Task: inverse folding
């Protein structure tokens, strides 16, 4: 499946694919906290790591339609930024408490809802997502930032079935952009070297992918949610778990995690920051007897 998946992207990128051995014990003094089917939750008293096995039927919800706010999606924002990469769309979104994002996930998925955490970078005036997001085959945003922000430092997480890849994001338009490929789920973030306070110990949300079972397909996702970490440390934690490539999502006071309705990592802001975009983890459908 790997070749077919990457062939669909049809972009000239360097593939980060490596089989990384992983012991049954978590690294770096992390301990197992929960282990529902397809997910392992680890913590070290400060940081939390989710290990997600796509091959077990776990999935990510990359966008919730209820986050969309009224407004013309193709208009420029208050700074004159238009939707990027020939998408013609950059939805306006409303900020909500993470608990509301969790309630929405439960409303859709019931007891299959496992966790929700902060996602895409965003800007105000009005609230829009900075970089592209595609979910279930629908492009919700080409982002407003384009090459004007972090040019050459963007990467994409692409998920198709039980395979995930993190690749450099080619800042091109239709038809070469992976947004227009058949890959159904895609979100763009930043690489670990993009300067988002690179040496500061602040909230970090990092995603990694890897081939945990060594079968040549990246079926495993790791999500690190840390209330205080440098970018290098966040990257190295995921590499210690087995990630062969990593991506940075929004951080700082946006960094938050809720697991089964329990707050595991709270915003560093005095009042919990409301965020316009969150990512949900959905457990496999239970097999009937």
Result:
């Amino acid at each position: 499946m790997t070749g077919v998946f990457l062939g669909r992207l049809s972009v000239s990128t360097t593939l980060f694919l490596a089989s990384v051995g992983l012991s049954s014990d978590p690294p770096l003094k992390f301990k197992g906290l929960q282990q529902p089917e397809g997910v392992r939750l680890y913590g070290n008293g400060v940081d939390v790591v989710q290990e997600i096995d796509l091959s077990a039927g776990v999935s990510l919800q990359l966008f919730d339609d209820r986050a969309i706010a009224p407004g013309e999606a193709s208009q420029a924002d208050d700074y004159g930024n238009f939707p990027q990469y020939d998408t013609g769309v950059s939805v306006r979104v409303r900020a909500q408490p993470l608990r509301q994002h969790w309630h929405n996930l439960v409303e859709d998925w019931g007891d299959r809802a496992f966790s929700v955490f902060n996602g895409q970078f965003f800007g105000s005036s009005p609230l829009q997502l900075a970089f592209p997001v595609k979910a279930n085959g629908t492009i919700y945003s080409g982002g407003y930032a384009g090459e004007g922000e972090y040019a050459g430092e963007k990467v994409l997480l692409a998920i198709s079935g039980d395979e995930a890849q993190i690749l450099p994001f080619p800042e091109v338009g239709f038809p070469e952009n992976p947004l227009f490929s058949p890959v159904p789920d895609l979100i763009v973030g930043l690489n670990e070297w993009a300067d988002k306070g690179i040496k500061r110990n602040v909230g970090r949300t990092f995603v990694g992918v890897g081939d945990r079972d060594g079968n040549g397909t990246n079926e495993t996702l790791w999500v690190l949610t840390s209330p205080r970490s440098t970018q290098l440390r966040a990257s190295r934690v995921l590499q210690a778990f087995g990630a062969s490539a990593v991506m940075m999502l929004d951080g700082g006071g946006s960094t938050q995690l809720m697991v089964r309705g329990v707050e595991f990592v709270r915003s560093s802001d005095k009042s919990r920051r409301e965020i316009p975009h969150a990512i949900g983890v959905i457990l496999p459908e239970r097999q009937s007897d």
Remarks:
- The two ends are 30 Å apart (CA to CA).
- Confidence is low (pLDDT under 50) at residues 10-23.
